[in-house]
Amino acid sequence: MSSSLFRKKSLDKITADAAAGISDSHSSGLKKVLGVKDLTFMGIAAVIGAGIFSTIGSAAYNGGPGIAILFVITAITCGFSALCYAEFASRIPISGSAYTYAYVSFGEVVAWIIGWALILEYAIGNIVVAISWSGYFNNLLEGFHIHLPGWLATNASNAQLGYEEAVKALAAGEAPETMTKHAKLGYDAIMNAPMIGSWKVILNIPAFFIVMLITWLAFIGIKESKRSTNIMVIFKLAVIVGIIIVGFFYVDTNNWTPFLPNGFGGVLAGVSAVFYAYIGFDAISTTAEECKDPQRDLPKGMMYSLLICTVLYILVALVLTGMVHYSELKVDDPLAYVFDKLNMNKIGYLISVSAVVATTSVLLVFQMGQPRIWMSMSRDGLLPKKFAQVHPKYQTPSFSTIVTGLLVGIPSLFISSGFMTDLTSIGTLFAFVLVCFGVLVLPKIAEGAGRKGFKLPYINGKFIIPAIVLLITFLFRSRINDAFINIGNEGSQEILFLIFMVIALVTAFYSFIRSYSFIPVAGALCCLYLMIEIPAISWLWFFGWMALGLIIYFFYGKNKSKLAQS
Fold first, then answer.
1. Which of the four pLDDT bands, split at 50, 70 and 90, describes residue 27?
2. In this predicted structure, what is the pLDDT of residue 22?
3. Rg (CA), the chain
4. Do 378 and 95 meet the contact criterion of CB atoms below 8 Å apart?
5. Residue 200 gets which letter from DSSP?
6. 3-state secondary structure of 384
7. pLDDT in tens, 283-316
8. Would you put residue 171 in left (φ > 0), alpha (ψ -120 to 50) or beta?
9. d(C-alpha 498, C-alpha 168), whole Å
10. Which of 289, 266, 277 is nearest to 428 (CA)?
């Protein structure tokens, strides 16, 4: 039973098939049109989105100018993961991303779990981005004095919250025109929504519209998607570089003092917001079969995009906190806000346009990524054959692309983003952890084998990892002691912390015994720590999603698997 659950793909066979232009004994049928520049742009498209235009504000509000340090820390964490992705991409140059990597490293059931987690990451992540896009788009329309009815521009949950805010404001004697946009929109939606029986019809039409438009673009071809992505990235990079250059002329260095107004704890309070700004660079690994030279180009594309985005994030954080005091930045559109405050409204409007473009490019990359995960799972027999169908004309995974569009578009009509950001982060971090640990169990390559592509540098972690874990144990000794003493009364968050410490200590032990490489172990432990900082309620939803996935696997995928037939 267990051997069938953990049956693995042969790395040698995958490599041989890839060299022959075949993927798992199937002609891929996908166009090989992506080079290093395209992959780098795709990575930038996925990373620079809602994060730099919105969540950076709340992170700066908590951490002050020191938020720039957190961008460095998070970039290092993502960098460890990116290096591990690059190692896999170089050795397994086919579609599937972390799903395929787990199939080779840990076996089938773990591969299914990670594939199911990636579906969560891409689908829910894009629902959040689509809702964010809708907000930016509505702001742009208002700039042209076009006002969508409230019941066509939001969802019922947000409308109700806005309505309650508006009622309180009106009761306090506030004039309607001075209320927040959120309150105005919610009040308009609740008061004017048409009724079907007892249900108020409140739908986020712009979010649905952009998902359908992006799905169509992803459906008609990788070349068209590549062109569109490159254009959008060039535009938003030009705007962001312009913001940095212009903004530095208005920086007041007094705003950088104190650099850590709330201490390092305040900086760490922005971990979730900052990490969410980075997720997505792994999506380019799903396009391996559309790369001209995946073993060389994928690793370069990942690292270049991560490096460029990190530099831009740090500079934007410094400009933002230099132009205005950090305490003013808890707003939805911090970049536009600081320029509007300095009466540079035209720049603020250009930023709003760029925000729409940025979130559109994120949607496009993610809508391209998920169908290719499903295509890989279908080829392996874990999903019905239909999901592997490649369009004869457009040479894209057509059926999977349509299903992805519906899976993202329909919920975006009704759902509030809320805790979905945390769910997206859990799915992403879970994938990162397995990819990092997966590198440790990859077969060794003989010296002089003439290996092509990227090779992960080996840094002996025999003493470094145990030393770091012992230091962490010492620094958190009070928290560990309190958690053990009060374990019967502790909340879920502290139990997660204790589980992390157990995993860290076990990993340190094996690192000492087996001289594990430092980079993948450090990446896995960093990602695990970020995971335990996510609220426990999101973990419950995550486990529920995983349980549903395992039911599907045991009733369908386990018996239909290609490896079960061989």
1. very low
2. 45
3. 24
4. no
5. E
6. coil
7. 777 777 777 777 778 888 888 888 888 888 889 8
8. alpha
9. 43
10. 277
Tokens 């007094």 belong to which residue? Answer: 254
Copy the structure tokens of residue 174. 């506030």
Structure tokens at 172: 């306090």
- Cβ atoms of residues 43 and 284 within 8 Å: yes
Which residue reads 């879970």 in tokens?
430
Dig out the tokens for 131 from the structure. Answer: 């809702």
318: Cβ contacts below 8 Å, ≥ 6 apart: 65, 68, 251, 256
Q: Which of 1, 557, 565, 22 is nearest to 289 (CA)?
A: 22
Average pLDDT on 449-462 reads 75
- Exposed (0-12), middle (13-18) or buried (19+): which is 393, by Cβ within 10 Å? exposed
* Cβ 456 vs Cβ 302: under 8 Å: no
Q: Please answer whether residues 526 and 472 qualify as being in contact, where contact means their C-beta atoms are separated by less than 8 angstroms.
A: no
Mapping DSSP onto H, E and C, the string for 264-332 reads HHHHHCCHHHHHHHHCCHHHHHHHHHHECCHHHHHHHHHHHHHHHHHHHHHHHHHHHHHHCCHHHCCCC
Distances (CA, A) of 119 to 345, 500, 546: 40, 25, 11
Query: Which amino acid is located at 147 in the chain?
Result: H
In this predicted structure, what is the pLDDT of residue 350?
79
Range name among 178-182, 244-248, 366-370, 458-462 with the lowest pLDDT average: 178-182
pLDDT at 505 over 90: yes
Q: How many CA atoms lie within 13 A of 196 on its CB side?
A: 3
- State the Cα–Cα distance between residues 383 and 375, nearest whole angstrom: 8
Locus of tokens 């039409």 = 205
Rounded to whole angstroms, how far apart are CA atoms 538 and 424?
A: 10
Mind listing the pLDDT tens digit for each residue in 410-422? 988 888 765 566 7
Backbone angles phi, psi at 34, to 5 degrees: -95, 130
Question: In whole angstroms, how far apart are CA 354 and each of 2, 213, 238, 374?
Answer: 51, 18, 9, 31
Q: Higher pLDDT residue, 144 or 281?
A: 144
User: How crowded is residue 178: how many other Cβ atoms within 10 Å of its Cβ?
Assistant: 9
Instruction: Provide the CB-side half-sphere exposure for 436 (13 A, CA).
Output: 26
The tokens for 379 are 């080829």
- Cα–Cα dist 272/507, whole Å: 25
Is this prediction's pTM over 0.70?
A: yes
* DSSP H or E stretch at residue 27: strand 26-27
Q: By the 8 A CB rule, do 49 and 236 touch?
A: no
Q: What is the mean pLDDT of residues 532-550?
A: 84
The separation between the first and the last C-alpha atoms of the chain, rounded to the nearest angstrom, is 16
Three-state SS at 23: strand
The answer to whether 408 and 204 have CB atoms below 8 angstroms apart is: no
3-state secondary structure 134-158: HHHHHHHHHHCCCCCCHHHECCHHH
